C-alpha cells in the first residue's frame, strides 16, 4: 500500500519561496500510467490541481495559475516529488496535498487512490 508524506509548508511573505516535498513509501511504479501530483485546497474552496507527472514519463502538467512560478521535480531513486514555489502570492495560500495513483488524466482527481495529510502554505501580503 502506498503512503505519502508531505512537508515543507510554512508562512512566507508575498514574493517569497517555499519548497514542498512528498515522499512515497514505494519506489517502483506499477504501470506506465502511475502518476504523482500536487493539489491544493483553500478554505471554502474546492480542491484544485497544481502540478503533476506520470512517474515513468517526463511531461509535467501545471495549472495555469502556477505555471511559470512553480516547478515540479522528482528524485526517482528515493521516490520523492518536490514542488518549488517561487513568487508566491496570497492566493496561493492553501493546504497542499500530494496524491498518487494510476490515472488517465494527470490533472484530474479521479484515479488518485492515495493522498497525503497535507501541508499548510500561507502567503502574507
How does this structure look, described?
This protein has 125 residues and is mostly beta strands. 0% of the residues lie in helices and 50% in strands. The protein contains no helices and eleven strands. Strands 2, 4, 5, 6, 9, 10 and 11 form a seven-stranded mixed sheet that branches. Strands 1-3-8-7 form a four-stranded antiparallel sheet, with no helix packed on it. The protein is globular, with a radius of gyration of 14 Å. It starts with a strand and ends with a strand.
Q: What's the pLDDT, averaged over the residues? A: 94
Please give the radius of gyration in angstroms: 14 Å
User: Residue share in helices?
Assistant: under 10%
Which structural class do you get from the secondary structure elements?
A: mainly beta
Shape: globular
Provide tags for this entry.
seven-stranded mixed sheet, four-stranded antiparallel sheet, 11 strands
Write the layout of secondary structure elements.
Elements: E1 4-7, E2 10-13, E3 18-24, E4 34-41, E5 48-54, E6 60-62, E7 70-75, E8 80-85, E9 94-102, E10 114-115, E11 119-124
Parallel strand pairs: 2-11
Antiparallel strand pairs: 1-3, 3-8, 4-5, 4-9, 5-6, 7-8, 9-10, 9-11
Give a brief rundown of this model.
The chain is built from no helices and 11 strands. It is mostly beta strands and 125 residues long.
Amino acid at each position: 500500500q502506498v503512503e505519502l508524506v508531505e512537508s515543507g509548508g510554512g508562512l512566507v511573505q508575498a514574493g517569497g519561496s517555499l519548497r514542498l516535498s512528498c515522499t512515497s513509501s514505494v519506489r517502483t511504479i506499477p504501470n506506465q500510467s502511475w502518476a504523482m501530483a500536487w493539489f491544493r485546497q483553500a478554505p471554502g474552496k474546492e480542491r484544485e490541481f497544481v502540478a503533476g507527472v506520470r512517474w515513468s514519463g517526463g511531461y509535467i502538467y501545471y495549472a495555469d495559475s502556477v505555471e511559470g512560478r512553480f516547478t515540479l521535480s522528482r528524485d526517482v531513486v528515493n521516490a520523492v516529488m518536490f514542488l518549488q514555489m517561487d513568487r508566491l502570492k496570497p492566493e496561493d495560500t492553501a493546504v497542499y496535498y500530494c496524491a498518487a495513483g494510476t490515472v488517465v488524466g494527470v490533472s484530474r482527481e479521479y484515479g488518485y487512490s492515495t493522498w497525503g495529510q497535507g501541508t499548510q502554505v500561507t502567503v502574507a501580503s
